[in-house]
Amino acid sequence: xxxxxxxxxxxxxxxxxxxxxxxxxxxxxxxxxxxxxxxxxxxxxxxxxxxxxxxxxxxxxxxxxxxxxxxxxxxxxxxxxxxxxxxxxxxxxxxxxxxxxxxxxxxxxxxxxxxxxxxxxxxxxxxxxxxxxxxxxxxxxxxxxxxxxxxxxxxxxxxxxxxxxxxxxxxxxxxxxxxxxxxxxxxxxxxxxxxxxxxxxxxxxxxxxxxxxxxxxxxxxxxxxxxx
Length: 228
Ligand code: SF4
Fold this sequence. Notes:
Elements: E1 15-18, E2 21-24, H1 38-42, E3 46-47, E4 50-51, H2 60-70, E5 78-80, H3 90-102, E6 108-112, H4 116-120, H5 125-130, E7 135-139, H6 145-151, H7 159-174, E8 177-183, H8 190-199, E9 203-207
Parallel strand pairs: 2-5, 5-6, 6-7, 7-8, 8-9
Antiparallel strand pairs: 1-2, 3-4
The chain binds iron/sulfur cluster.
Keywords: 4Fe-4S, Iron, Iron-sulfur, Metal-binding, S-adenosyl-L-methionine
Protein name: Radical SAM protein
Cofactor: [4Fe-4S] cluster
């Protein structure tokens, strides 16, 4: 469980707009420590000019107030993302998803590491779907367990890779739109990643990795910013 120590940042960013989409930032905590992540490499939490570092995990009402202040009308989608894993705040995420759909938001997406079912000890895919989530974007980042733990160290070890694959497979059965992405770090086989993702039933996304070894975080059409 996350701690809720007093905040030191005067204006934490819980909701932010880029293009015609709204992004919700629930946590700075991750299950992975991805070697290519700007947060891990450089201590940078900045996306699109927004500093997404949170010193305290916000509650439902705080994020909901921020979302309403940013405005829901006319949004192409609302996305749970940021430099943290949204499903680590699963009850908050589910309640916000229900509110967003009740408010008429056309598309709610979750960007995730795909490890929620492993962490929670149960299949959470039906819960995400029942709450109204429309789409999932899962960071897989490797075509095999050994590469996964090398690029994305975590407390579960290689078991996490299989769990992420299982999550993608289950999600692809339950959701109309599931993408799985891999960051194009040097030496990673795009073909192997793509073949695996397709075998799991998901859409494949290859994400750029620039020459400085940082994720490209500038939003582009059809390619919303995300950390992991
Ligand atoms: S890439 Fe995503 S999952 Fe990995 S450490 Fe960064 S924010 Fe966390």
